[in-house]
Amino acid sequence: xxxxxxRPLIAWYEENKRDLPWRRTRDPYRIWxxxxxxxxxxxxxxxxxxxxFLRACPDVRxxxxxDEQTYLKLWEGLGYYSRVRNLHRAAQVICxxxxxxxxxxxxxxxxxxGVGDYTAGAVGSIAFGLPVPAVDGNVLRxxxxxxxxxxxxxxxxxKKELRAAVAAIVPPDEPGAFNQALMELGATVCLPNGxxxxxxxxxxxxxxxxxxxxxxxxxxxxxxxxxxxxxxAVVVFRCGELVGLRRRPDSGLLAGLWExxxxxxxxxxxxxxxxxxxxxxxxxxLLSLRPAKHIFTHVEWRMTGYYAELSEPxxxxxxxxxxxxxxxxxxxxxxxxxxxVIEEEP
Length: 346
Description:
- The chain starts with a helix and ends with a helix.
- It has 15 helices and seven strands.
- The model has no long low-confidence stretch (mean pLDDT 95).
- The chain is an alpha+beta fold.
């Protein structure tokens, strides 16, 4: 099967691949950065973040030297902030242990903070030509459809065996092109959440799911656990031209990021007035805002919004101008629905 899938797939890739900025380089730093950004984020959304990040941190040494607020701000809007923290830690390891040069070794790549099998495989094969697989969700979908494999792909044993199957066919002369071809096939032809474009597939003749009409049933996943729903009040504090922000704890959800202060469970307007008075806030005006929700991987915030105008700044908060907030403070996208009232009083 190796030649039957490898050569047609690579030939198709060379003819049909999208022109993406990280495909114009063999620089492991740029490839690594793109792979981390692309996890659970659409390509179109990643490109401006990728380009902005590189302007500020053009190489691994620059990232290693960046302060926390700089790299968190650069990541603002991508979510999953643990990823950029791991990027920074890994950059420091590369500088400290490898003199600022990425190790051209699969085991060493895999040992870097935040780097798993997929990322180590992608960077190793594309940047260094290492004959290792890079198995992401796109590749899992392609492989389960080709083999008509109904095992759940989120099962650790299944994923391990599928990775071994890909490893067995990675061509030693073109591992990067082959891995990218499999991923590109999954992203543009063997589509998720809809009918695959089987007529455009270079390996359709090998695909059992296409032959039997079962592609839409694959891949299978184990049933997801229900998300925890949190009722939360979010307060936009204003004092004159300043906005009150608070830093979240160093562990847990959105660890260490700035937030619009919140209260759980969400109090009603009168209860919130009482709470704020008890905490020493001098509230001149309290208005209700439209509710909003934000979905994390395992938690859903259902947010009641409030606008609180204070007669004097409260010392528990950090007070910044809207311009400073936009330019310097990393505010998670969970609060995006309430940011418009910061620009002008509601």
